[in-house]
């Protein structure tokens, strides 16, 4: 595992994510598909949003494997944007995602997996 800097400014990331979520919400309400990628994607529905999540996820994986740090950050931003659009297209509130993350806080992934029914 490489020893890179941890998240140095969580407030900056939180602010960027909140701004992105608000922009996507605004586009969902009155975006114009001829001038807004978000509105165009939302108009196509959840299947199109899902396809972009899968495509961008693959591009991020490729970047993690063999591209520069800048490319990894850029592809991660693409994934986050398209995940937000996909959630909006399904009408799944970001609060629900926050709740899922909060529920996992303090529980090791290894402990969670071991506690699943049928896991020995
Ligand atoms: N963060 C993003 C963002 N990330 C990626 N994209 C767009 O997502 C599209 C698909 O990205 P790709 O890299 O797959 O582009 P591509 O390979 O040419 O696309 P394909 O031909 O493969 O479909 C491109 O048009 C990108 O510009 C984004 N579009 C918008 N945002 C944010 O959403 C805001 C509102 O954007 P509009 O809705 O377009 O006004 C923007 O100000 C940004 O903050």
From TrEMBL:
One Pfam family here: PRA-PH
Keyword Nucleotide-binding: yes
Biochemical pathway: Amino-acid biosynthesis; L-histidine biosynthesis; L-histidine from 5-phospho-alpha-D-ribose 1-diphosphate: step 2/9
Top EC class, one word: hydrolase
Molecular function via GO: ATP binding; phosphoribosyl-ATP diphosphatase activity
GO biological process: L-histidine biosynthetic process
EC number: 3.6.1.31
Key words of the record: Amino-acid biosynthesis, ATP-binding, Histidine biosynthesis, Hydrolase, Nucleotide-binding
Catalytic activity annotation: 1-(5-phospho-beta-D-ribosyl)-ATP + H2O = 1-(5-phospho-beta-D-ribosyl)-5'-AMP + diphosphate + H(+)
Classification via NCBIfam families: histidine_hisI
Family: Belongs to the PRA-PH family.
Name of the protein in question: phosphoribosyl-ATP diphosphatase
Organism: Hyphomonas hirschiana VP5
């Amino acid at each position: 595992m490489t020893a890179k800097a941890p998240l140095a400014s969580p407030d900056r990331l939180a602010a960027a994510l909140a701004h992105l979520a608000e922009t996507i919400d605004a586009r969902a309400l009155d975006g114009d598909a001829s001038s807004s990628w978000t509105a165009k994607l939302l108009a196509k529905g959840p299947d199109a949003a899902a396809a972009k999540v899968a495509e961008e996820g693959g591009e991020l994986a490729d970047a993690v494997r063999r591209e520069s740090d800048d490319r990894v950050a850029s592809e991660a931003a693409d994934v986050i944007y398209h995940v937000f659009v996909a959630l909006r297209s399904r009408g799944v509130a970001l609060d629900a995602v926050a709740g899922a993350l909060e529920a996992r806080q303090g529980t090791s992934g290894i402990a969670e997996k071991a506690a699943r029914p049928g896991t020995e």
